[in-house]
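Give me the fold.
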Amino acid sequence: MNLRRLIFTHNNADFDAVASLMAMHRLDPTAVPVLPHRLRQNVRKFLTLYAGIMPAIQHSELPDDLELTYAYLVDTQKLHTIPHLKDTTPVHIIDHHQRREDLPPHYTTLIDEVGATTTLLVELIRQQNIELSSLEATMLLIGIYEDTGSLTYGGTTVRDVLAAAWLLENNASLDILREFLTYPLEETHWHIYDQLRQSATIEIIGGHVVLLATAKVEQQVEGVSRLAHHMMNLYDPNALFLLIQMGNDVQLVARSTIDEVDVGQLAKALGGGGHVRAAAALLRQTDLNAALKKVRETLPKVITPSITVADLMSVGPIETINIDATAEEAAKKMQISGHEGYPVLDGERVVGLLTRRAVDRALAHHMPQQPVRHLMEAGTNIYVHPNDSLEVLRQKMMDTGWGQMPVLDENERLVGIVTRTDLIRRWGMPPRSQHQQHMLMSRLQNMLPLALWELLTYIAHKAQADDLDIYLVGGLVRDLLLDIPNLDIDIVIEGDAIAFADSIQKALGGHLHIHRQFGTAKWIINRDVIKALDLSLDDNTGGVEFIDFATARAEFYKEPSVLPTIRQSSIKQDLHRRDFTINSMAIRLSPPPMGMLIDFYNGERDLKNKIIRVLHSHSFIDDPTRMLRAVRFEQRLNFNIEPRTLNLLENALPFLDRVTGERIRNELWHLLEEKEPLRGLQRLEQLGILNTIFPNIHIDDWFIEKYNLLRSAQTQPSWLELNIDWIAAQATLLIIRCSSDQIRAWSERLMIGRTLENTLLAIHQAIPQLSQLPNMHPSQVVEYLGSLPPLAWIVLWTIAENDVQRYSIEQYITTWRYVHPTVNGNDLKAMGIPPGPIIGDILRRLRSAWLDGEIQSVDEETAYLEQLINKHQKL
């Protein structure tokens, strides 16, 4: 047997480790698997029964004069596993644990975050079309199942599931798998189990239920990890830590049912290893008390504080209903707010919950005046506190059937509401991360100019001092997560935004523009503000001239496609009124800690998945201009509109006719301002949006060719000098092939204004003469183009049929339009020419002569001028 290429794994090897040995051998048959000194009991029994599954050698059988030329290391990154290892020996590591930072630079690795190392190797086997026997497939499947808790641990990925499915297709045996993953306890195990039960203590750490238990035996006992399953079933904690003294060593077995308690990190800190939800460590030459002390000291470092009701509940103005209100009043209130239920108040005391179902039932039975007290679900003691865990909330919802749960403070005052939807969304959210808070604030500080960062910090601290909840919202939050620069600062306040902005302006200066109808204020920043912050005037705001403040509000659309009715509300409702999930996130500035991402509608998830999704099924009906915005964001970010949103968009197309032309024009102009507008226009046509707005416009080959030509002109100095409105030029190119009547209809529909409409019609009228340009004298070209604005010049240049036509226009803008006689009207008057049309006619003739080369010097101009004067005098 050639022992120059070997495959190693960690000691006390489980099925994932040994299955990885076998898989690596199948991928490299020249490499020999090395079984470690210790194997898990079930692994050892499997290899005893199926000894021929791989040509392995025992670690103890390795010769002292071993000369390795190549080594594989699977399911571990600990180098001491490999004996006789030289510094220059190539090593390739395949593992699914977090990469170590101290690996030698010449080592190669395949390290990825999947549930089992076996998964990575199965993927390679599948790619290389290596055939497996039924027994080999079974061993690999056991490796995946054991390390992923039968595909139930939080670290399990889609790749693990796909690998397992492929192994089943290759005749892996579930009967054999079940035999080696579920096996009975022996007498020694029952003895340890009794000790663990008697010593078990439950502790609440960071809001999580943690079980600690100890036991002691004189000799080493294999298979104690299976006791964790029994203890989990008995106590149902969030996490457990079993410490078993075996002689002079202590074996730690750790399990967790939630990602917030990372048992793998704790085991690693104690010299072991594992995953977020399953881990182990062997503490050598340690007694139980010392081991237990180490575990207690390390636990707070690996536990993320649990999410509480306070993290989910909606605050701000809480929607409630009085116990004496009628069913009819409740129905109207629900229609406006969109809520499915309200806490019922008797005075200031919560006495029950009114649901939409109860209201609908009363109206269906023709009882609109039925009082709420007869419709509500009574319950004066049914509520949660802000610091209650999600488990408490879940249990109360299950016990009562209430989908909206009142949140009361210690004085039994209503401070919030939390819904079943909030709870459901929480399960799909990643755990709250302090690292993310620090990352967002650090990224924000780096993105903002110094003065703007100082302003934002001042605003946050002022809000904290005033006990106000304020948030950064809008595109800045989205772009911050995408690491895209954005200086558009929008702040939402759960409270009076105008009063808060006024206090900022009085403290720092600047000017305030207030819109009381919408509860908004625009704070204009000037040099006085910079001075008030004790900053140098060189510390500018990066061109930002204002900051917008808005009161958190909800919207109600009385009719489809009209502007909404607005009312004060909470940050949750404020975010719910926005167009897409990726734009419905906020960053909390107050109360502290600053930087917490508020994401009720999974916007961060959709950012990661690169999709555009509306928040509710009526989104495009409420505001059809969101269709154009969906395309704009899709193309700008290179995302995809997800299928359900596409379906809603297609169904809502007829509602575009109800939107004012000004709003459609604004959205179209915004799209044309993007870096690659053509892609957006093509997508508008593909989705039927363009055809719905104006059926005669098409993004065909002609348009694409001319559009690219127009874009190229934007880099040419001769055109840049003209200060052309390039957005209007793109819009003109869209419509210019239509008839004059269609242009008028388009102009009226989009409310583009009389000036642009007249320019469009003038261009349309000038198009037939384009073909004559090559035959025109320069003076004729000047006459043709001179009465048109620069917008017309660039459009005619763009749609010209050939370079000869374009050359004439280029000559006009660079040379011919600057050619004028050396004399002017005053000179002619001094020569005795009376004021009137004669002067204009003479000057035009002189200019034409210069342009057409009939005169080429001042003397020739003077002679020609005398001829013209004599001619007019004779007349």
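The two ends are 120 Å apart (CA to CA).
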